[in-house]
């Protein structure tokens, strides 16, 4: 993490969760996001990249660091990392090299990690993050670099899963050597809310680039946060590092807890120590893991077994040309092409499958406004409730378009359509079949409805007379009676027209 931005004014700072700082304190936050790349093989060997396989079954002498082996750089990983750097508007290095980052840890078999140090692949980019109020926070990107992932410690016995309560730890090296991109931000973030929004937006961007599945539960995307607090206008405070936040919620909660801890410590006269800390979601507390190393502690030196990587202009431009429509550009297009609001377009642009679904539905149904309402309303609620991705939903674009067509032709009312949609989502059946099975369908036969209206007006002379005297709300009574007789299937617009005609009085 960089010590501070080139322009101190960029780190604006604010309080916990947003707004003014507590008792005049402000937070300064920078992020380090690690993204596992979805290549077929590891960074420097031919072992398959997998998840959930039996421990230590996808390893070889190269990724285990045996003597006398030679690593070979994964070209696809370089391409994927370049895609990320370009999407973040970074300057791409003409020449980059790998270094050995030396430190001892049980899940690092070589006792060093092959990484990039002073010549990263990309530098000087940015990510524009939309806050909840619609304003934009520009977060500087210090660097984007390639490295290999470490293995994974499994803490067992005792309080399993917790290093401080386990009886022993086991090491699974399957993950070791997986291609990893580290994205380091400038400390331009000032609240836990902004940090969460930044990681969410970055996750969406990387997912749309097609270079990682960004599954936080499986560790494909992990986040470290560097945080300090200070009085407005003061120099940067001493930072601590929150390690391996593997969910948006834990990131936000961890930052809130650490900011409060630092403020309380400083107010009681304590000194903040540069260290790596751990947030325990179960207790909501922060504890020390280890002292925080400086760059010189890692004794970086160029990796002697790997040649420099020369990134030709033609390669960079080929990668640039392969980039998909990025979320920011898509948001602008959705607003211009479909007349969507900034919020609607932002939601659809951030989720590529959902945006694709909307555009497909708008084309098939021929109604942009209704399509947007359904996709962002009932369809999204269905996905959230069922825990489904767009592609997993039984309600395909064609089937929802069929349902909207029944509404536009007057066969179904809006209320009925919601009932049919719920059945479609639960059974996977098409709308027409469900309408037939349930005997649904909007009654739009004027003759059939007129007979009902005439009979009800005759049977209720008192309310009819009240309406003729100007009590407009009495019309609702008659509409309710018609709907009761037709089990809610009468065409509301036609019912209103017929009632006014036969009641006379206002609007008759």
Explained architecture:
Helix 9 runs antiparallel to helix 10 and helix 13 packs across helix 14. This protein has a nine-stranded mixed sheet with strand order 2-6-7-10-1-11-12-13-14. The relative contact order is 0.10. It starts with 25 loop residues before the first strand and ends in a 5-residue tail after the last helix. Helices cover 38% and strands 19% of the residues. It is built from 15 helices and 16 strands. It folds into three domains: 311 residues, no CATH class; 114 residues, no CATH class; 58 residues, Orthogonal Bundle (Arc Repressor Mutant, subunit A), CATH 1.10.10. The longest helix has 20 residues. By secondary structure, it is an alpha+beta fold.
Q: Tally of extended strands?
A: 16
Structural class: alpha+beta
Largest sheet, if any? 9 strands, mixed
If you compute it from the alpha carbons, what radius of gyration comes out, rounded to the nearest whole angstrom?
30 Å
Average predicted local confidence, pLDDT: 87
Number of helices: 15
What's the number of structural domains? 3
Helix content: 25-40%
Strand content: 15-25%
Strand arrangement in the largest pleated sheet: 2-6-7-10-1-11-12-13-14
In short:
This protein has 508 residues and is an alpha+beta fold. The protein is built from 15 helices and 16 strands. The protein starts with 25 loop residues before the first strand and ends in a 5-residue tail after the last helix.
